[in-house]
Amino acid sequence: MTQQIRNIAIIAHVDHGKTTMVDQLLRQSGTFADHEKVVDTVMDSNAIERERGITILAKNCAVSWKGTHINIVDTPGHADFGGEVERALSMVDGVLLLIDAQEGPMPQTRFVTKKALALGLKPIVVVNKVDKPGAKPDAVINAAFDLFDKLGANDEQLDFPVVYASGINGWSSLTEGAPGEQWGPDMSALFDTILKHVPTQSGDPAAPLQLQISALDFSTFVGRIGVGRISQGTIKPGMQVAVMEGPGGKSINGRVNQVLTFQGLDRVQVTEAGPGNIVLINGIDEIGIGVTVTDPANPAPLPMLKVDEPTLTMNFCVNTSPLAGREGKYVTSRQIWDRLQKELQSNVALRVAETGEDGVFEVCGRGELHLTILLENMRREGYELAVSKPRVMFKDIDGVKSEPMELVTADVEEVHQGGVMQALGLRKGEMLNMEPDGRGRVRLEYRIPARGLIGFSNEFMNLTRGSGLISSIFDGYEAHKGEIGGRKNGVLISMDDGEIFTYALGKLDDRGRMFVKPNDPVYEGMIVGIHSRDNDLVVNATRTKQLTNFRVSGKEDAIKITPPIELTLEYGVDFIDDDELVEITPKSVRVRKRFLKEHERKKASRESA
Ligand SMILES: Nc1nc2c(ncn2[C@@H]2O[C@H](COP(=O)(O)OP(=O)(O)OP(=O)(O)O)[C@@H](O)[C@H]2O)c(=O)[nH]1
Ligand SMILES: [Mg+2]
Asked: Which residues, other chains included, contact 73 with Cβ-Cβ below 8 Å and sequence gap of 6+?
C-alpha cells in the first residue's frame, strides 16, 4: 500500500480565513457529492464554534488531489488555544501560513510562525483575502519576510513560496492580479504548491512502529482516542504495542483496537496504515499527549511533546446562592468534579485540583477564553456552578516571583487612542510600537503583565465604543511588576430577597448602570448594578411604590429606566472582583458578593486588612 501522502496544518491569526479555506479545499477536491448541501466553515463543528464563528479545537480532515491524499489540520487562531496549534504542528510536514492581505501579520501570526520555524518546517505563505478593498499584498509579503528573518529563519525558510488567495471566493494564484478582479480560476494553484513544496514522509513501512500521539479525543463507545502521524512502520488493528513516555520514560503494553484514517470529514476504519499517514487509534486508555506507540520488541520512542503550562486559574465552586438548583440538572460537588475529570481526557492544557475548601475546585487553563468556553459547555449540559475572578499563576524562577507577560495588539480609532493608552499604562503596560494606518485608525503594541489584562476587555470595549480590536498572546515570564489597581467602580448590592420592581429601578437609575430588569429574581448580596462611584452600595431593588403619603405627580408615574447591561458569562468573569462570584446556570448568569450578608463582608474585609 504505497499511497502518496502530504500532511499540512493551516495556521494563522484569528479570523484570517483558515476554516473558510478548508471549506474550499474540501469542495474543490470533490469531497462532497454534487447534491450534498454543506454548511459554511464546516470544520467548526461544535455548537459554540458555530455560534461565535471561531475555531476552538484543532481538527483533521483529508482530501484527495491528483491521486495524493492530503491530511489537513485546521487550527484555532485565538491565542488561548496556541497549545492546540503546537500539537497540530507535531503531526504535519508542512504548513500553510495564512496572512490577511489587509491586516498583515498579527501577534498570533508571529507565534505560529515561530513555532513552525523552530520545528524546521518550511511554511507556504498564503496571502489571503486579496479580494478585500484595502488589500496590500506586497506590503504583507515584505512584512512576512521581516517576520521570518526576525524569528531566525534559515535561508531555505526565508525563500518561502507565496500563493495569493481569496478563500471565500474559492480562487488562488501564483501571481498578483488587478484589484477587484479574480486572479485565478480556482484553488489549483494552492493545491499544486502543496504537492510541490510539502515534503513526503520517507519512513520505512517495514521498520519498527513509531507513532507519536499529538491529539486526544474521546468517545463513549470506544473510550480514549489518540491521533498522530506514523513516522515509520505499519500499524494494524489488534496489534500488541508499547506506549512509551519518551526515551527512558515509562512504558506500558497494550493492544490497539481500531485504526482509522481521515477521508473528507469522515473517519474510516482501515486494515493497516503506513509511514506518513495520520491515524486515529483506540483501545488503549492510558494513551496521552506526546507518547510514542511503538514496537514492544524494538521500541523507537520519540521525545515527549511539551504541553504549555497553564497561566490562569479560577475556582469552580458549588452554587450556594439562594436560587441554586432551580435551573440546573447537575449541581453537586461530586457532579462538577466528575465533569472536570472527563474534560481532562481530551482538554490537554487544563489542570484541575481540589482545594482545602469543600465544593471548591481550582481549574487552571491558558486564558480567560479557554476557561469560559469550558463553563459555557458545562452550562449547556445542565450544570450549575459559581466561579471566582481569574488569577494569573505566578512562577518561581531562580527564587524570583515571576508572572506571565502578554503581547497586546490593539487596533483603535485615533480618537480613542488616548484613553486606551492611559488605561494600558495604568495596568503596567509598556508601549512597544504605535503605527497609524493613515485612514484614521492606529495600531498599538504593548507588553503587559497578564494580570493587567484581566477585566480589561469590558473596559476596552467601552473606551473604543465597541469599535476597537484587541488580541494578546503569552510572551514569557518576568519578575513581578508590583500592584495593579482593580476595578474602578463599586457595585450596587441588593439588600433583600425578592423580585426586581420597576419602581425601585427608577429610583436607582441615577446611581449607575443595572444588570437586572423588572421581575428578575434577586437575593440579598446579589449584585444588581455598577455603582457610578468607587464604593459598594447596598440598595433596595425590591421596593414597590408606597400607596400612602405620596404626592402624585405626572413626573413620578413615568418611570425612566436605562436599559440594563446584558450580563454574559464573559462579561461577568471579566467584571468581578476578588470578593465576588459569577453564578452560572443553564438559563442565567448573575453576579454576587462571595459573602451575601453585609456583616459577613465587613468581617471578611477586616480580617484581610
Ligand atoms: N473578504 C474575505 N473575507 C474572508 C475570506 N476568507 C474568510 N473571510 C471571512 O473572514 C472571517 C473569518 O473566517 P474563518 O474562516 O472563520 O477564519 P479562521 O481563520 O478560521 O478563524 P479562527 O479559527 O477563529 O481563528 C469570516 O467572516 C469569513 O467570511 C476571503 O477570502 N475574503
Ligand atoms: Mg477557524
From this structure: 7, 8, 9, 10, 58, 59, 60, 88, 91, 92
SS3 331: coil
Cβ < 5 A residues, ion ligand 2: 18-19, 55
Please name the residue whose Cα sits nearest to atom 21 of ligand 1: 15
* Cβ–Cβ < 8 Å for 349, 367: no
Task: Report which of 352, 393, 305 is spatially closest to residue 85, judged by C-alpha positions.
Answer: 305
The DSSP code sequence of 350-370 is -EEEE-SSTTEEEEEESSHHH
CA 468 – CA 241 distance, rounded (Å): 53
Q: Write the DSSP symbol of residue 356.
A: S
As a whole number, the mean pLDDT across the chain is 92
Rounded to two decimals, the pTM is 0.85
Q: Supply 30's cell numbers.
A: 470533490
168, 190, 373, 473: residue to mutate for ligand 1 pocket, most atoms within 8 A of CB:
168
Amino acid at residue number 142: N
Query: What per-residue confidence (pLDDT) applies to 1?
Result: 45
CB 362 within 8 A of CB 313: yes
Q: What 8-state DSSP symbol labels residue 511?
A: G
| pLDDT over 90, % of the chain | 74
- pLDDT tens by residue, 295-304: 999 999 999 9
Residue 31 has what pLDDT? 83
Give the residue, by CA position, lying nearest to ligand 1 atom 23: 55
Residue 2: pLDDT band (50, 70, 90) is low
Q: 489 C-alpha to center of ligand 2: Å?
A: 36
Distance CA(279)–CA(274), nearest Å, equals 9
Within 10 angstroms of residue 341's Cβ, the number of other Cβ atoms is 10
